[in-house]
Design brief:
This protein has twelve helices and no strands. It has about 280 residues and is mainly α. Helix 1 packs across helix 4. It starts with a helix and ends in a 5-residue tail after the last helix.
Length: about 280
């Protein structure tokens, strides 16, 4: 009995820890929170908990509440330091994040249950990577959210939240990059730092609606076409690595960047082995 209680407690701790990492990762432009959730081995459970919420309301509330609490803490704690580190040490931080993504790729490949790589499997991976890379060609500032908060702007914030939810759910598509595309990155970061709820609440409501719609579709494809779905998701993640690649380091960074890549790889490889 005591062993079961300890296991239950550990599961919640691991869920909160993974939520914290996912929340922090979403603040870095080019890094996907969905990818990080997939890498940490909690993605499928999140999709099922949202899509099939009413099948086990109490269990899903506890699980999602723990994850969201961890993610919220991660965003609040790391919004400022991550922003400064990425701004001042962009090359080093990007290599760390690339290592973190690489650390989870074996787990995602295992989830696909592919026994042999053929041209068909490579094709699905290519499609996923191509979709991610095409996002790079969306014009920045496609929506302008400047000005004060009016009824119209609150509606646009909710609409923006629905669009952001797609990036939140699909691995490899960066929420932070999508915020940049929508012209919302700076305002959202400032709102998170200052806990400006008049901005955050309509945005969160839009995200919530988008998440519900997207997860239902995704759960269906994961159940009916698991191999194809996971291979495309693997392509999403490989494409996201290409998107955040900052170029080759020089000088002292030539020594530091490989170490940071390896550090990111080891940390995520270790955390992804924990069962949520």
């Amino acid at each position: 009995m005591d062993s079961n209680k300890k296991l239950h407690k550990d599961n919640f701790l691991y869920t909160a820890l993974k939520g914290l990492i996912v929340g922090a990762s979403m603040l870095v432009p080019g890094v996907s929170g969905g990818s990080m959730a997939m890498i940490l081995g909690i993605y499928g459970k999140l999709v099922r908990a949202v899509s099939s919420f009413f099948k086990d309301i109490l269990g899903n509330v506890l699980f999602l509440g723990t994850f969201v609490l961890g993610a919220g803490i991660g965003m609040i704690l790391f919004a400022s330091p991550l922003g400064k580190l990425t701004e001042n040490y962009n090359m080093i931080m990007m290599y760390f994040f690339m290592g973190a993504v690489a650390g989870g790729i074996p787990l995602i490949y295992k989830s696909s249950k592919v026994k042999k790589i053929t041209a068909k499997e490579i094709f699905y991976i290519f499609i996923g990577a191509l979709i991610t890379l095409l996002i790079n060609f969306i014009p920045e500032g496609i929506f302008d959210f400047g000005g004060g908060l009016t009824l119209a702007s609150l509606g646009m914030l909710a609409l923006g939240g629905i669009v952001i939810a797609v990036a939140l759910i699909l691995p490899g598509i960066s929420v932070s990059y999508m915020l940049l595309v929508l012209g919302m990155y700076t305002e959202t970061m400032n709102a998170i730092k200052s806990l400006y709820f008049p901005y955050l609440i309509p945005l969160a409501l839009g995200v919530l609606l988008g998440v519900v719609l997207t997860t239902r579709i995704l759960e269906t494809t994961m159940n009916r076409y698991p191999e194809k779905t996971y291979l495309i998701i693997l392509g999403f993640i490989i494409g996201s690595v290409v998107m955040v690649f900052p170029g080759l380091p020089a000088g002292m960074e030539l020594l530091i960047c490989p170490i940071m890549f390896l550090l990111g790889f080891i940390i995520i490889k270790k955390i992804s082995s924990f069962q949520a």
